[in-house]
Amino acid sequence: MQQEILPIRLKRLYLQISRQMALTLLLPTALLMSASTQAASLDEIYTLAVINDPQLGAAKAGFLARSEVVNQARAGLLPSISLNASTSQNERTILRPSLPTENYNDNGWQAVLRQPVFRLSNWFQFQQSKNIKAQAQAQFTAEQQELIYRVADNYLNILEAQDRWSAANAQRDAVQRQLEQVQQRFDVGLVAITDVLESTAAYDSSTVNVIEAEGAQVVTFESLLRLTGQAFYEIDGLNPEFPVKYPEPRDEEAWVMAAVQQNYSLIAAREGVNAAERDLQAARSGHLPTLDAQIAYNRNNSGSRGFFGDGTESEQQTMALQLNMPLYSGGATRSQAKQAGYLLEQAQRNFDLTQRTVVENTRTLYSALNTDVARVNARLRGIESSQSALDATQTGYEVGTRNIVDVLLAQQRLFQAQFQYASARYGYIRDTLRLKQTVGTLSPDDIADLNQYLSATQVVRKISSKTR
C-alpha cells in the first residue's frame, strides 16, 4: 500500500509546483519590469526563480531527458516495420560462346514487419525504465524543494545582513554620542584624557564594523540576481510578530518515520535499487532464447535476359518464426550479469547511506528546531537584561563608580544581543524549512505562509554607493 501512496504524493507535489510555474507565466509584464525598482516580497521572488533559476531549469531538462527511457524501452516490445529498396546497373559479357555485352538494371524493394514474441530481457528493461523515470521524478521534485529553500535562505541572508548593519550603525551612533559627551566632560576637567582615547578607539572600531556590514549587505542582494535573472534593490522585511513555536507533533520518532517514507532523495535511492534489480534480471536473461515473428514482402525486377525471355519480375511473401538460442558469446553475458550484480550492491549501499543520512538529519534538525525556539526566547530576554545592564552602567559612570570602558562594553553587548535575537529567528526559519524538506513536505505553500509575515512597511533597501 505504501508503494502506491508515495508516487501519488510525489506527483501531487510535482503538479503543485508545476502549477506554480504555469501561474508565473501569467504574471503581468509590469511586475517583471518593476521588480528592480519596487520592494519585492518573498513570494514574488520565488515566482520569478521558478522560471529563471538555471539550476532548476537544468534539473527539469535532465528529468525530461531521463523520462524518455520509458518510450525507448517500450519500443523493444512493440512491432517494428522496415522498408528497404535497391537498384543496380549491371554490365555482363559472356565470353563463350561469344555474345554481345548485356547492360541491364536490377531493382527491388522489401517490407518487413517484425514482432518480438519472447524477449525476456526487453521486458525487464521496460520495467527498469519505469523505475528510472520514477527515480528521475523524485530527484526533480527534490530539486524543486531545494529551490524553495534556496530562495528563502537567500532572502533571509539579506534580512540578516540588514540587521547586522543596523546593529553596527546603531552602535556607532551610540558610541559617537558617548564620545561627544566624554569630550565635553574632558573640556571642563571632569574626566581624564584616557576616557576620550577609549571612546575614540571604540568609535573607530564601530566605524569599521559599519563598513564591513555595508559591504556584506550589498553582496547578499546579488544572490537574487542569480536566482531570478533580475536585480532587486528593495525587499520586504520580517514582521516582529512572526511566531516562533515548537514543531508539531512533539515526537521525534514520528518525524523520523515520516522522513523515511517521504524524503524524495530516499525515494530516488529506493527506485535506484529497483532499477538495478531489473537490470540484473535483464542481464541474466541474456542466456535465454529469443523468438520473433516476421512477415516480409519482396518485389524484384531484373532487366537481364533469362530463359523465359527479356527481363524478369517476381514477388515473394514470407511469414516466419525466428528462434535464436545463444550458446556462447565469449563470456560477455556472464560478465554483464556480474557487472549488474555489483551495480545492484552499489545501489543498495547508496540507499542504506541515504537512509541513515536522512534519519540523522531529521533527528538533528528536530533537536535544532527545539533549541532554536528556546534560543529565540532566551535572546529576547537577553535584550532586556542587556538594556538594564547598560542603564545601570551608565548611571554608575555618572556617579563615578564605573569607567567609560564599562559603558562601551555594555553598549556593545546590547547591540550584539539585538542582532543575536534577529539572527536566532532567521535560524529558526531555516531549520523549520530544512526539517520539512527532509521529511518531504516542503512546498510552495510554505513560501506563501512565510510571506504573510513580511511587512511592506519595513522595507530593506540595498545600500547604494552614494550613501556608503
Describe the structure.
By secondary structure, this protein is α+β, with helices and mostly antiparallel strands. The protein folds into two domains: 2-77 and 120-287 and 330-461, Outer membrane efflux proteins (OEP), CATH 1.20.1600.10; 79-118 and 289-325, Outer membrane efflux proteins (OEP) (Single Sheet), CATH 2.20.200. The chain has twelve helices and six strands. β4 and β5 (309-324) form a beta hairpin. The model is unreliable at 1-6 and 22-36 (pLDDT under 50).
Fold blueprint:
Elements: H1 2-24, H2 29-34, H3 42-52, H4 54-67, H5 69-74, E1 80-92, E2 102-118, H6 120-187, H7 193-228, E3 234-238, H8 252-262, H9 264-284, E4 290-306, E5 309-324, H10 332-399, H11 404-439, H12 444-451, E6 454-461
Helix pairs in contact: 1-6, 3-6, 4-6, 6-7, 6-9, 6-11, 8-10, 9-10, 10-11
Write down the overall geometry: elongated
**Total DSSP E strands:** 6
Strand line-up in the sheet with most strands: 1-2-4-5
Report the CATH C-level class of the largest domain.
Mainly Alpha
Mind describing the biggest β-sheet? 4 strands, antiparallel
Secondary-structure class: alpha+beta
How many structural units, i.e. domains?
A: 2
